[in-house]
Amino acid sequence: MTRRGFLKRWLSGAALLGVAALLYGVTPLLAPRRAKAKRNYLRPPGALKDDAAFIAACIGCGVCGEVCPPRCIKFHIRDGGGAVNTPYIDAAEKACILCDKCMEVCPTESLTMMPRQEIDMGVAVIDERACYPWVDRGVCGACVSICPLGKKAIGYKMWNQYRPVVRDACVGCGLCVEVCPHPSVPIWVVARPMGVKA
Length: 198
Hints:
The chain is of the alpha+beta class. The chain has two domains: 1-28; 41-190, no CATH class. Helix content is 28%, strand content 12%. The protein is built from six helices and seven strands. It has helices at residues 3-30, 51-57, 63-67, 101-105, 142-146, 175-179, and strands at residues 41-42, 73-75, 87-90, 123-126, 154-156, 164-166, 187-190. It has a three-stranded antiparallel beta sheet with strand order 1-3-2, with no helix packed on it. Strand 5 and strand 6 form a beta hairpin.
């Protein structure tokens, strides 16, 4: 092999390695990690309260999503680590109807059976500065009428003024979020504060 042939091969190998490294560096920009929603990001009903324990217990089988009638259970794709293939619900997109099917089929202890009123996916919060009845922009009541737990979980302020208020029995299913007609969605589900209704 001549010196010129050796240099040609070496330069072409270095160029190939450089292109590969460039593609490797650009790939995260083409497929960025999905950001977690700050609101309405829920675990399915019956999920372990500690998220790390839930991720450790869930085997990512996907059975809970297969049996879900409204198809509200989705799975993490690009979150990396143990969170990949774990289920979540985005209530703004599609909410849970509390049918209990996901809890029934879970092969691990990540989703455990419990009575409907003991489910704790979070708690609904209403922004009174944006909700139509609260700012006197009309009568709504969609969130109150859709709630599967009735007026124990969400009802009207005293004197039936059509101003919705969230009560202690709310389990955070997110149906109120899904049905809210306001474009800015002034109702959302957040994690329940520690020490409040377990």
